[in-house]
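Course assignment 3, question 2. Fill in each field.
Student: A.L.
Task: Predict the tertiary structure for the chain below.
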Amino acid sequence: MQYYASNIIVTTKTVTVFFVVFAILALFDCASAQPFVTTNGPYRPRVLSDVSIGKYQSSSIPQKMYISYGEALNANKKPLEMSTDNGLTWSYVNFPGAAVLATCAPNNPNVVFGQRWLNFIHYTDDGGASTWEEVQGQHYPMTQKISISPHDTRIAFLGTKRENAPNDTVMWKWNFENGKFEGHPYFKNIAQTNINDILPFPLAGARGNYVWAGGSSKSVYSFALDSTESEDVDDSTDEEGNIEFGPVTKGLWRSSDAGLNWSYLKKVGGSGGSGDKNIIALAFAIVPPDTFLYAITKKSKGKGVRVWRSKNFGEDWGSAMSVIQKNTVTHVRTLKVHPTTPTTLVAGTDNGFAYSDDGGFTWEIRNTGMNERDIYQLAFTPSGDTIFAATYSSLFRTTDFGMN
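Answer field:
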């Protein structure tokens, strides 16, 4: 059979050939795309607690990636692994004990802080090739976050849970001179608070010493994991404006001098009681001429996981930008901004990988290829061409944000 259209002759055979070729091209395109695939690490079936990536200033030296495990291991299992080829191959790092949490400096992957199981923090500046120094001070059994400045490795912090925190202190600052993490008195006796995220400003310069810390009440963290509800209790101030900590204290803190002094910004967003205090993740996006501080918060009474944005470093927030999949997501553990496209945000949730390409106004869940969806940590490569997602016992990677 033939069809005539102007001077073009199309036969049914031609149409058949066209569709066959189209189908082959479509299959080839899908094959070349990269949804989430597991990396080749020897870590399964252990609990992955952190994945961090550091890049040397010299482009000729490969970046390093570290993974650590959130569980105690026996003496025959190595607790810390490293890759220099984007997770294709892994090697064990000689760490003195079970590294339940380890983080490398973004600008020098040889600088690593690692925590032993229910014990001290250890430090190395050679990637663990020769030795680890035990950081003197307290035991930090409930460390939530280790954060190193992306432009100065002498600036580092760790945040803990309020439960069993050493000296009832939840924020600790690295003292490079004496090699200790020292508890900040401002964060002592803050009742029922977990420090969930610590965010140094990503660039050197006028704001280079700014640091933000976000905390939530223990009850909200339990709500996310156990689906139990609790009442928020507001904090109050005395006649001189000093904070009087109530049964539950949480919110946003800011330092302008690399953690020497702190101010309490309290609620994130809204007015007339519409804001949130339970902060579970923070991130920065620099979109010239604007600099955006993002916060993800969780209400204890089940209003979903909300996304907020400030243009003046946390002073004002306005209304919540969006809610990440209200009906399916109850908790977010990590929020990251693409290193070269700052309007692209990703979040690790208890229901998988959340993606936004419009600066956080809209979100979608992309889980193609993931057989585990409770994400503990996300990490971009410095170029932004690959992102890694650590779940309970697997490390996944994707080069197209899990699109296919």
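Instructor remarks: The two ends are 38 Å apart (CA to CA). Confidence is low (pLDDT under 50) at residues 1-33, 220-248.
Grade: pending
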